Amino acid sequence: MVISPETRAAIDEAIARTPQPRGALLPALHLVQAEHGHISLELAAAVAEILGIRSGDVMEVVSFYDMFHARPQPRHHVSVCTNLPCSLRGARTLLAQLEAHCGVAAGEPTADGRLVLGREECLGACANAPVLRVDGTYHEKLDSEAARQLLDGLE
Amino acid sequence: MPRISVDGRIIEVPESRTILQALDETGLLMAGIDVPHYCWHPKLSIDGSCRLCQVEVEGMPKLQIACNTPVADGMAIRTRSERVCSARQGVMELLLVNHPLDCAICDQAGECKLQDYAFEYGADASRTREPRRALKKNVELGPNIVLDQERCILCRRCVRFCDEVPATGELHVMGRGDRSVIETLPDEPLANDYSMNVADLCPVGALTTRDFRFKVRVWFLDDVPGVCTGCANGCNVTIGVSKNRVYRYQPRRNDAVNDTWLCDRGRLSYKRIGSGDRLAQASLRGTASAREPVSCGTAVAAAAARLQQLTDAAGAAALVVLASPHASNEDLFTLRRFCDALGVTARGAAVVLGPQDRLLMKAEQAANAEGARRLGFGPPDALLARVRCGEAAGALVFGHDVLDPAHLGGPEALTALETLVVVDLQDSALARCADVAIPVRHAAEREGTLTNFAGLAQRVQPAVEPGWEAWTDGEVVWRLGAALGLAGFEGAYDVRSVSRELAQAVPGFSGIDLDRVGEHGLSLAGVGS
Amino acid sequence: MGPQVPLITNYLTQHFLDDAAVGLEGYERLGGYAALRRALENSPADLIELITSAGLQGRGGAGFSTGLKWSFMPADGELPKYLVCNGDESEPGSFKDRILMERGPHQLLEGILIAAWATGAEKTFLYVRGEYERPAEALERAIAEARARGIVGTNVCGSDFAHDIVVIRGAGAYICGEETGLLESLEGKKGQPRKKPPFPAQYGAFGRPTTVNNVETLCHVPHIVNNGADWFRGFGTEKSPGTTLFGVSGQIARPGLFELPLGTPLDELVFEHAGGPAADQRVKGVIPGGLSMPVLPADQLDVPMANEFLRERRTMLGTGGVMVMDERTCMVRASVVIAHFFRDESCGQCTQCREGTGWIHKLVERIERGAGVMEDITVLEDICAKMEGQTICAFADAAAWPIQGMLRHFRGEFEAHVVQRRCGFAESFEL
User: Beta strands of B312-370 (E only): which ranges?
Assistant: First the structure.
């Protein structure tokens, strides 16, 4: 796995915007993950080299933030906010229904590697609970039927 | 200097320090004023996360961490108030929530700060009923260090050490919250030259050295102050001894020499003390070239006879003397007097050079290379040239450093001499082909002083006794001198009187006295004669 | 479905229903950036004085005086100095900053530029919560527009003042909302809060003097500059002037965003504006300021929503995230959700927080399962007390307070779980 020239150029732009190269670490990781789906050790080492830090510094950061993944991921991330405001409006029931629909428990990817269902802490859409986040896009005020259709539509 | 009050006691402290730094520098921390702490360490950056060092500072509503709170003139601190004690108890209880409490099988037991502080500052009983965190055990972080993640209290001393001291940064805290664990990357083991310090730094049993673990319970160990003999730096160590056996070196704090650190090579050099390749028997080489075991006294007499014969026949100029850079100042002074009395001018000391770094490791692989130089045993090149071109007929050699490729490479040039007397710690290639071989004592088996690279004289004292007959280099020389009837070698060898004479005779060593060289050494002024 | 638009608007949100007002053209048509131009004609000291006298308090949770915070910045000209806008809104129950960023990006940029002028900052890092992709895009678009028009750049609105704004996205860590955790994150590190001293005004982003302000806080600034301190003090209470955005969620008829003066009574907000609970239900408790604030029981909802009044009820305004629970809800179960959140999000540095959040979660979870004993409740109270006020940042307090609130007002439910060895709330949400 290598960082493409396009991604590299975007990382360089991020570096130019921050006083110290390491300040571009989060932007760089977002970019690399967008390209490769996860941050492998090899990719972490490449990012580290660009920013003049150690691979371990990169992996620490990857391990700290929920949105970064050190291992290969299923094609789609579907997460249900299960924090209190959403729980009060049926989010946990919705998650259970989706688990049954997909035949997997939250946190386990489907056998075909299509998606993983997850729980998410508050997404900041409390008034529109329950909320589903699919690969970065919010879907708010969903009922169970709409959510199932949404999942079925994922490649 | 600011004056602060701690529990009503007024003390003067250095400026621009935090409370813990000030107490540490005045020598009061945990020695008169107890402020227990985990993450803070005098030689590492301030972390402020364990929260155990909280104290009450007058005028501040919240408890303050002593590690990060700057001292100010007139500051009033309380370290034993009810609020402080309750906060400490809270920290201790929370640290123990996930601790496996496996002290019975933990190597740290007996020197564990979790154990000590739980006893001293903790509550009487545990109130947790929850299952403890199950994490990885026996993780080999590198060749020398083993990690038990379950015992870790995440003080991050080890992480900061790797980041800040060797600056190799192998250790990381991965994860977040109560899922945080210490880890290395798969392809970056903890393998720096100072890796074993993390075991000393670890206040609990999470990091242990592979060398020491399961060897002996620490409460069976006696701690004897000593000096590492691995190189010319002369790092201060505590020698852990049980039943006349050395189990480990640990760094002994000396801010002028090694702070609180020790390199791995030096630390493991304790193994030379009890090593199987020690020269444990004096011997003579008979005509059949087999070695004939004899007592040290017999060996010294035989050596004296050979040296007498040599000097009678060819004069003192035919003899070369190679001193040992591992011997003490007192040994070397005795040898210097011996050479003077005998009229030997061809003297020097071969020193092996090894890797050095910006931290502790010095190139000279001997603890007293500087002392040897200051006592007139300089580079041996000219002397070895005399050996090579046949100008010398005999050699009195201490140690076998001369075999190093930088000097002779092998024993041939010396064994070709008419007479070869070798006084050595190890059963070296040189000792094996000497006419007379005489064993000596290791620095951990004797009294004396060593001069480190910077001219700091440091004392060594016996931690163990060798399991065989052996004297110090100095005593061997003394007895040789006596056997040769040289003036000044009358009576029994006494290291204390030699030390006093050294102080008087050699300007650079004035003031040296076994009992005056304190636990942190004595800086020698100027360069010796 | 897009973001929740405000159900009650005031000066901050008055144009949020109008799509045409989001872009630069629409914003300027409605008088946008006039405040910035006016501010640039005033000295930084005068602006700090104006904001201080207006009594604007930080809207990110702590409620600290914004003018005072600005005044901590060293006044000398040594650069760089930075402004950091905290858009890492992650407090459960809060969604106001998301809407402010998405629906009013130029209002925020205007506030940023005024604050930057007042504090002498040459650059702003606008840290946007990682999950907030659309708000981040909206801001990037707005910055590009403003840059093209000379509002952001080397000569802000034609003046000698140079300022650049950089959007940095977080990556999913609640603790980055803590100002020094955010600074660490900006520097490409784990978001573990810094010990103080030093404070950000001396040693902030990349080691330089830095002011950190919340999104909503900065959005108020242009309005104060336009209308004056007295006008601002015309809203809210004497000690807590201005409006704020209340986000109401949970078991309530009209969940949504309400821009109302500080000091609006909680019961008015819940029952009048948000329509009260479902027809056949009664309110049991309300969390008034985001998940980290202690709950209030139904009989204490007559409190004005401003810190000076909420403190008397041993809770705080926090981020104005109001969560309503009706009588179906098991408060022990709610506590499990709360405790899980704080356990998950603790950065793990300080002993009390790392171990305390985990222990609280395990304890509450066991009590909820019906496997608790009475002593557990005492232990819970005690752990909370030992976490409070003893750590590097206020996260441990934020983790302890809501549990303390639950125990203060709903202790009976915890005891009932212990005695009955099960949860008695058949209609509560399942864990």
Answer: 319-323, 347-349
Would A70 be classed as within a structural domain?
no
Q: Per the structure block, which two tokens stand in for B204?
A: 């609990």
The residue of C91, C94, C95, C286 whose CB has the most chain A CBs within 10 angstroms, and thus the best one to mutate to test that interface, is C95
Per-residue model confidence (pLDDT) at position C1: 39
- On whether both A141 and A113 belong to a single domain, the answer is yes
Q: Which domain holds residue A58?
A: 5-64
Polymer length of chain B:
529
DSSP H or E segment with residue C123: strand C123-128
Percentage of the residues of chain C whose pLDDT score is greater than 70: 99
For chain C, give every domain's residue range: 6-233, 243-326, 331-420
Residue C149 has pLDDT above 70, yes or no: yes
> Does the CA dihedral C132-C135-C137-C140 come out positive or negative?
negative
SS (H, E, C) C165-214: EEEEECCCCHHHHCHHHHHHHHCCCCCCCCCCCCCCCCCCHHHCCEEEEE
Classify C251 in phi/psi space as left (phi over 0), alpha (psi -120 to 50) or beta. beta
CA atoms B242, B107, B194, B27: torsion sign: negative
C6-233 CATH, one of 3.90.320.10, 3.30.2380.10, 3.40.50.11540, 1.10.150.530: 3.40.50.11540
Spell out the residues 6+ positions from residue B6 whose beta carbon is closer than 8 angstroms to its own: B23, B28, B33, B77, B78, B79
Residue B192 and residue C362 in contact, taking contact as beta carbons nearer than 8 Å:
no
Residue A73 token pair: 């991921």
Task: Measure B173 CA to nearest chain A CA, in Å.
Answer: 7
Q: Which of residues 171-190 of C touch B (CB under 8 A)?
A: 173, 190
What is the nearest CA distance from B88 to chain C, expressed in angstroms?
A: 9
Interface contact A23-C291, CB threshold 8 A = no
Q: Enter the tokens of residue A117.
A: 């269902």
Type and span of the H or E element at B380: none
pLDDT band at B511 (very low <50, low <70, confident <90, very high): confident
The predicted pLDDT at position A1 comes to: 83
Q: Please give the average per-residue pLDDT across C371-398, as a whole number.
A: 96
Confirm or reject CATH 2.60.260.20 for domain C243-326, answering yes or no.
no
The burial class, CB within 10 Å (0-12 / 13-18 / 19+), for C431 is: middle
pLDDT on residue B528:
39
- Residue A51 inside a domain? The answer is yes
Domains and CATH numbers, chain B: 3-80 (3.10.20.740), 130-272 (3.30.70.20), 282-445+467-494 (3.40.50.740)
- Say what the pLDDT of residue B527 is: 41
**A141 and A92 share one domain:** yes
Give the strand order in the sheet containing A115-120.
A115-120, A76-81, A131-134, A137-140
Rounded CA gap, B94 and C350, in Å? 11
Q: How far apart are the first and last CA of chain A?
A: 24
Specify the pLDDT at position B287. Answer: 64
ipTM of the complex as predicted? 0.96
Neighbours of C198 (CB within 10 A): 12
CATH number of domain containing A126: 3.40.30.10
Beta carbons of B176 and A54 less than 8 Å apart: no
Establish if A94 belongs to a structural domain: yes
The verdict on A91 and A52 lying in the same domain is no
| CATH classification of the domain holding A53 | 1.10.10
Residue B483: what residue type? A
Collect all residues of chain A within an 8 Å Cβ-Cβ radius of residue B186. Answer: 41
**pLDDT digits over C344-372, tens only?**
999 999 999 999 999 999 999 999 999 99
Give the DSSP H/E element, type plus range, for residue B415.
Answer: helix B412-415
Which among B457, B419, B456 has a CA at the least distance from the CA of B437?
B419
Scan residues 161-220 of B and list those with Cβ closer than 8 Å to C. Answer: 173, 175-180
